Amino acid sequence: MAARGVGTGESRLQRRFRASWQASRGLYRVLRANPLTLVGFILVVVIVLIAFLVVVLPPVTGFLLGHPVSIVPHDPNALLPCAVLPGNVTQCAQPPSVQNWFGTDNVGRDMFSQVLAALPLDLVIGFSVAGFALLVGTGLGLVAGFWDTPGTIGGAVSLTIMRVTDIFLAFPSLVLALAIAASLGRGTGPAMLAIMVTWWPFYVRLVRGEVLAVKHLPYVTAAKAAGVSAWQILFRHVLRNILDPLIVYYTLDVGTVIVTFSTISFIGIGVPATVPEWGSMVERYERLLLTAPWTVLAPGAAIFVTVLAFSLLGDGLRDVLDPRSRRALVQPAAASGLPGGSKSGTEG
Amino acid sequence: MGPLLHVDHLSVDYEVGAGTFHALRDVSFELTPGRVVGIVGETGCGKSTLAHAIPRLLPEPPARIRSGRVVFQDTDLLAVPKWKMPMVRGTSIGMIFQEPINSLNPAFRVYDQLTEAVRIRRLREAGLAPSFQAPQPHDYSKGAQVKGSDALARTLTPAPPPRSFGRKGPDPEELRKEALEYLRLVRINDPETILGLYPHELSGGMRQRIMIAMALSEKPSLLIADEPTSALDITIQAQVLTLMKELMDEVQTSILFISHDLGVIAEMADEVGVMYAGSLVEFGPVDQVFESPGHPYTKALLHSVPNRYKDGGPLPSLPGSVPNLSRLPAGCTFAPRCALAREKCRADPGPALEPVPAAPAGSSHRSACFFASEVPTLP
After folding, report:
1. What is the pLDDT of residue B155?
2. Which residues of A15-47 are buried (b: 16+ CB within 10 A; e: fewer)?
3. Any idea which fold B5-112+170-269 has?
4. Would you say B39 and B272 are in contact if contact means Cβ atoms under 8 Å apart?
5. Which of 32-71 (B) contact A at CB < 8 A?
6. What is the ipTM of this complex?
7. Predicted TM-score (pTM) above 0.90
8. Residue B12: Cβ-neighbour burial (10 angstroms; 0-12, 13-18, 19+)
9. DSSP state, A289?
10. Is A250 within a domain?
11. Closest Cα of chain B to A256: distance in Å?
């Protein structure tokens, strides 16, 4: 592969294009080796793309074409005309049809539009709340795991972090989140804050455990013996080796956060009624479950598919991130362990 | 010239649930620059504890350095604050470990790990990173003598960084070139390919060569090799030993070589220390110790080496077993297994290392036995 790139007078752009093309081919091979990961990957890409279009398309087209174009077919809060049945009875909740893919609710709002309009909010909540927990939890967990010698300043800090974490973990996190959300008042912000406050202790536990397992391994001692400073050992050697389980846990957690947020909304202390959100929609239409089941099934299925997508991707990422299985997946012949046998390592 | 390393009455305990294990008791020896000192002993006698205690790599707790000094280039390393120890490690004291399989970080390519070592040395050479410097003799013309703690502080004070050096440090291309040089030094063919591989794609012998390259690339004054070949199979072991022997001539560095293999020690070391149950029982030039041992344990150890020219019969073995390090006998620790042991040995913990009577005058050959003169009479 080195022979192709050298001396042919490629421009920098061409070389960059070739590099990214090769990288994406590697990714494709990894994904193809595990079909479920591929499904998860495609689903996540599609979901993120749709959410992006929902947010970005109307203002952009409004600016360019003069009139906004949206992939959301109807205004989620617009009341569509209800059907009038014999005997002058109005029937607003329509079953799924060509015009209304997921049907309409009891006042005539299009379910498909509502589910679609809620997607960006739920995704942002999932990513940001889990991301916040990841950052805070990883930071505290690294410190608590790495400097845990009793009787030192680090030991005292570590002890404090772990006891505070234990206090948070002693409460059922959902109940704690509900209590905080309820005391802060109704709204998207307070509900997110409530989950953020209760979410990080799990990451502290996870990270601390991983750090404790890794920090006495021979390669960490070897790095110490080479004169690598404590901070570099922590961030370069230890963090890199615990990153794989962490990222996997994060992707799985995005789904869990969405479910939790939906639960808070379901109870009625999350988002206001005018903001479409999957959990609050399930709550709102709960009593229509028998007469118009599509109103509950549509947001429920949206939650299900999103969580499933991230779970599948998270499972597959484990294989992609580990150098041992990655190269085995990309190039089965290179996994023989013989240094001369592999030709894939020369790049970089 | 004084000794490069002077281990002085070093005692290390492990405090675990079951009690206190005296892993090292009163170990003293010196290493003169340019020499190779071998430490030999059976499993669990404290060899690795000694190797890890010198650059202070022991996990504390459970380990605890009870007493003693580790004087390296006239500085007592045990008095250096723990956070300053990374400055000593690598460029002053390098180390090669027992398990080449696990001693390379599985997440990084050889390139990343080797250039990390080269980079550390370059930064320290340029004064961009704080490094350990041997203390300068005090200049009395400038006034009163500096107190001990000040002298220590000055020893480890970083030199101010030169302004011309870039913030990012050494040029990556130069680092790469130097990494390749060190791979060639440890006789690796096709270093370009090896540089891009992950540790799991390399064999044990290959990994140990890379560990050696990493240690040497920091140009340490003292290299501690903690059983560098015991995890390798016999042919690879021979290759790595040959390599190390060749490198000893090329790279002028002092080595503390730890092994349980008497043959390896005889091959590599100038001087040898024999350890038993956490203490040094004999120390001296390799040929003298192996020709005319001054301690019954050394004698027994040499006696148990299989001889390929002698046929038949079970291999000779020493009756009894190593005492429990948490409940050591009152007298000499070797007394229960010793043919020379008398009443005195069972009551008295034995002498410190004393010159062996049979040794030539001026020899460093010393033994911790009351009856060193009787050892040659043993079978």
Report:
1. 45
2. eeeeeeeeeeebeeebbebbeebbbbbebbeeb
3. Rossmann fold (3.40.50)
4. yes
5. 52, 55, 57, 59-61
6. 0.80
7. no
8. buried
9. T
10. yes
11. 29
